[in-house]
């Protein structure tokens, strides 16, 4: 074993010497490997970053949730629809929970138009929502300060508010918002909690706006419905989140809920059902196609690099015939010649892979900065990319190595 390590060390040293002797040719050969590995690393980093960001964004909607939204209709259509349907409301939610056994709970929300939102310390342009108490749980929102309002607060029409972190900074720039008061239109509310900032950007995910909770103000649904004015003929709820248990697929649950709501709404198309699990599946399918295409492009670069390695090694065999003949004459076996050339191919691949990894990292951050995408790293992915690079190099190096080993020693010595 020790002798094998000594031989390997000598082969590596000799390979580095050969590469240094032909620097320009070696550099040109490395380019294929460098760009191939760099493309793989950058593509997988962006892909993994997008995957993790999608999971973070979808958590706000809930993979086990269904979302029922009231449709926006023009005034004429709304008048016609209201003859048969009162719109999305709390009674819809109660009926769904009582009728369908796979429903664990629900939460409703209603957005109110505001013309003023301020405190004695500052002001804000945050959006104001009246929500039922379970809304925070179903939306994966947690209090960073204070305590979220309770079901009793909702039943008692309590004039309390929960602020997003961004809204809290605007309304209370000096900090310490808990216990202080804000005014929404004509209604004074006492701040009982500030949400923990999830660091999610405002953006669209599969055509939907997701995130932005930091610039929201929340008050109990009953208090908002009773004390804040809503538009004429508008529905009681803008959005209804429904939590499912694990006994049913979200798509099947959506069909059952749609059948129930169709009967309650007189077959009027005044709502739509969003299935977060379906949105995630669509996103993953799009990402999968992107990954396959980019992998193919990177694979082509690696193959080109492999062909370059084969080319440089064939040229090296032709140049070193006398050396090979001399090695065979002093007792070197065919396997020793093959090992020497494969080590040389591996050294080229490892150098190219090392440079490619650095290029890939730089490229990934450049793409992220330019396109606003997230990146994420995995040591396993980097290791696999390097191993694939070496495997391709060794694969393309087999033929030149075998060709060198099979040279006739006498003819090889006479070739000088």
Mean pLDDT: 81
Count, helices:
14
Fraction of residues in H or I helices: 55-70%
Task: Output the helix-strand order.
Answer: HHEHHEEEHEHEHEEEEEHEHEHHHHH
Q: Would you count the extended β strands for me?
A: 13
Q: What characteristic shape results from the CA principal axes?
A: elongated
Class derived from helix and strand content:
alpha+beta
Residue windows where pLDDT falls under 50 for at least 5 positions: none
Q: Alpha-carbon distance between the termini?
A: 36 Å
Give a verbal description of the structure.
By secondary structure, this protein is α+β, with helices and mostly antiparallel strands. The chain folds into 2 domains: 2-58 and 282-414, no CATH class; 64-275, no CATH class. It is 57% helix and 16% strand. The chain has helices at residues 2-21, 23-61, 75-81, 90-99, 135-138, 151-155, 165-171, 221-227, 250-264, 276-319, 321-329, 334-371, 379-405, 409-414; strands at 65-70, 103-112, 117-119, 127-131, 143-146, 160-163, 181-184, 187-195, 203-205, 208-210, 216-220, 239-244, 271-274. The strands form 2 sheets. Strands 1, 2, 3, 4, 5, 6, 7, 8, 11, 12 and 13 form an 11-stranded mixed beta sheet that branches. A two-stranded antiparallel ribbon has the order 9-10. It is elongated and about 100 Å long. The two termini are 36 Å apart. The mean pLDDT is 81.
Key features of this structure:
14 helices, elongated, alpha+beta, 416 residues
Question: In a few lines, what is going on in this structure?
Answer:
The chain is of the alpha+beta class and 416 residues long. It has 14 helices and 13 strands.
């Amino acid at each position: 074993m020790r002798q094998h390590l000594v031989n390997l060390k000598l082969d590596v040293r000799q390979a580095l010497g050969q590469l240094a002797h032909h620097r320009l040719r070696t550099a040109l050969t490395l380019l294929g490997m460098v760009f191939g590995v760099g493309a793989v690393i950058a593509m997988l980093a962006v892909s993994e970053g997008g995957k993790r960001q999608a999971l973070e964004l979808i958590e706000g909607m809930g993979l086990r949730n269904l979302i029922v939204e009231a449709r926006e209709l023009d005034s004429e259509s709304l008048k016609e629809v209201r003859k048969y349907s009162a719109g999305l409301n709390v009674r819809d939610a109660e009926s769904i929970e009582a009728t369908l056994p796979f429903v664990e709970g629900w939460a409703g929300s209603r957005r109110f138009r505001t013309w003023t939102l301020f405190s004695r310390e500052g002001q804000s342009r945050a959006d104001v929502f009246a929500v039922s108490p379970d809304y925070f749980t179903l939306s994966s929102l947690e209090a960073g300060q204070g305590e979220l309002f309770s079901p009793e607060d909702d039943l008692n029409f309590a004039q309390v508010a929960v602020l997003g972190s961004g809204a809290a900074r605007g309304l209370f720039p000096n900090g310490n918002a808990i216990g202080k008061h804000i005014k929404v239109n004509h209604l004074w509310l006492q701040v009982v909690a500030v949400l923990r900032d999830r660091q999610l950007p405002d953006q669209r995910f599969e055509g939907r706006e997701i995130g932005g909770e930091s610039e929201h103000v929340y008050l109990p649904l009953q208090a908002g419905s009773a004390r804040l004015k809503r538009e004429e003929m508008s529905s009681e709820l803008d959005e209804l989140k429904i939590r499912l248990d694990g006994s049913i697929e979200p798509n099947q649950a959506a069909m059952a809920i749609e059948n129930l709501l169709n009967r309650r709404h007189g077959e009027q198309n005044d709502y739509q059902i969003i299935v977060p699990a379906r949105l995630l599946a669509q996103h993953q399918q799009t990402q999968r196609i992107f990954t396959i295409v980019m992998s193919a492009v990177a694979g082509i670069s690696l193959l080109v690099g492999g062909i370059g390695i084969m080319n440089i090694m064939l040229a090296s065999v032709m140049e070193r015939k006398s050396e090979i003949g001399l090695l065979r004459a002093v007792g070197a076996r065919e396997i020793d010649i093959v090992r020497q050339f494969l080590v040389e191919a591996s050294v080229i691949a490892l150098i190219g892979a090392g440079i490619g990894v650095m290029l890939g990292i730089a490229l990934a951050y450049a793409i992220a900065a330019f396109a606003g995408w997230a990146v994420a790293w995995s040591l396993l992915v980097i290791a696999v990319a390097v191993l694939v690079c070496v495997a391709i190099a060794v694969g393309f190096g087999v033929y030149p190595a075998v060709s060198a080993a099979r040279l006739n020693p006498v003819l090889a010595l006479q070739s000088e």
